[in-house]
Amino acid sequence: MFTQLTDLPGCILGFEARGKFTAADYEAVLMPxxxxxxxxxxxxxxxxxxxxxxxxxxxxxxxxxxFGLKHFRDFKKFAFVTDDETxxxxxxxxxxxxxxxxQVFALTERxxxxxxxxx
Length: 119
Prior knowledge:
This is SpoIIAA-like protein. It comes from Rhizobium aquaticum. By secondary structure, this protein is an alpha/beta fold. The protein has a single domain (2-118), classed as Transcription Regulator spoIIAA (2-Layer Sandwich). Helix content is 40%, strand content 30%. The strands form 2 sheets. A 5-stranded mixed sheet has the order 1-2-4-6-7, sandwiched between helices. Helix 1 runs parallel beside helix 2 (58-70). The longest helix has 16 residues, at 23-38. It is globular and about 35 Å long. The chain starts with a strand and ends with a helix. The model has no long low-confidence stretch (mean pLDDT 87).
């Protein structure tokens, strides 16, 4: 499930993900927020993934791919906040494929991630 974070500066779009990602999450939460944010210019995205991620359903994986292709150049910065070392390593290893500055932060560094996105 995605939850849009509302405690962020106006220049940052943020989400927290828990449990299993579903296509409904993309359609109801992520996509409308992203469409609105893109109208304001390049997006600074904060994605927080605390413990409890249980994967993605196939429809969500499909939506994620389409979302990524549609908004490939719409990001300025991407901060991924997690303590999951596997996901953190994957993000670091594939950051070169993301056309935005990308950093990975631990959950305890969430405030630092927000500051980095603002800079």
